[in-house]
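Example 3.2
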Amino acid sequence: MTTPTRFIKAKVDKYIQLYSKFGKNEGTTYDKVVEVAILQGGTGLSTGSPPIITFSPHPPGSTNVNATATANVVGGSITSITITNSGSGYTTAPTITLTVNGTVITVAVLKAFINIQKRRVFEWDLENAIEINENALIQVVDRAYINTSTSSVYTMRLLDISTQSVVNTTDKSGIPNQPSFNQGKVIDIGYGIRTIPNDIKLEIQPQTINKIVISVDEGISKNKGINGDIEFYISLKIVEKEPSVIEYGTLNNINTSQI
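Structure, written as tokens:
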């Protein structure tokens, strides 16, 4: 008699490669200039006659307001910028021109950053759906940012995937109209350049995953989005968990009168 062979379907870890340029970008509304970064302060500039800052204007006929700012010069270099009018209606960050006595100068270089009123939400469709038949773990195993601040914290939140491994809390701060910190599950948080490995693992329930939806915010609690010229790459890993056997003891330990 031939001994029957038992086949067991192997559990293979799933990796999902996500690139910002390939994702459907939702909920982006740019508005006003909130920061002007000094990339090069320049030399030989006059404190009494600092360079005039000009932002690239809105198209002719636009009802939006152009931003304005002034440069502060100390020791011949631009040391700080004062935004006198943040402007409105920007869809991309305006370029900045510096002039002294009507002549464009290049010894100093400034860069404008604009506010994003809504979160940056990215959506990627999977070519092949992932079937989760048992509980599984999902985590970010690698990620990289380009054109990010070295001093800002970036938060990634996972949306539209069922999980019960995170217990939310209520907002007790008393701050009115602040966005929900619990919207989405945090799967990665840290500076643009990672110094420690990510150890956030979310348990996800049995389900079919057809798409990945992730929001990315610059900051921890605010849903303010990220600068428009930032790019990023994420590698997600999904590991299905093997079912485990739970033993309660032998039957002679059970008192049938209590059943």
